[in-house]
């Protein structure tokens, strides 16, 4: 059995397959998934699993170079924003880039996969850009 926290087979497989610059999106329950992009659906019910818990587990296995958020998250201020700010300050998420929500949805079309959570707070979506460990 794996020693790291991530147990989901599909998500672990996608993270293991990422190369430098590849994108993995973690989204709320309402984020549309573009045709042709793999969906890893973790959502069970409203709030389960939540966005931040999912992000923390992904970060336990994924080297992140930078991340992209929809600028609307700064206007709505969902509770997850405080944790995103802390993770950015701790260099766990690399450099931050803000784009409009429409541009974020277009960027999702370039992702290797979209991870759907049960999060129902507005704009709790992040695009993680894969880094390297060397």
From TrEMBL:
The keyword Isomerase applies. It is an enzyme of class 5 (isomerase). It is found in: Cytoplasm. Pathway: Carbohydrate metabolism; D-ribose degradation; D-ribose 5-phosphate from beta-D-ribopyranose: step 1/2. Substrate binds at residues 28, 101, 123-125. GO terms for cellular component: cytosol. GO terms for biological process: D-ribose catabolic process. Transmembrane segments: none annotated. Keywords: Carbohydrate metabolism, Cytoplasm, Isomerase. InterPro entries: D-ribose_pyranase (IPR023064), RbsD-like_sf (IPR023750), RbsD_FucU (IPR007721). Its main location: cytoplasm. Catalyzes the interconversion of beta-pyran and beta-furan forms of D-ribose. Homodecamer. Belongs to the RbsD / FucU family. RbsD subfamily. This is D-ribose pyranase. The lineage of its organism: Bacteria, Pseudomonadati, Pseudomonadota, Gammaproteobacteria, Pseudomonadales.
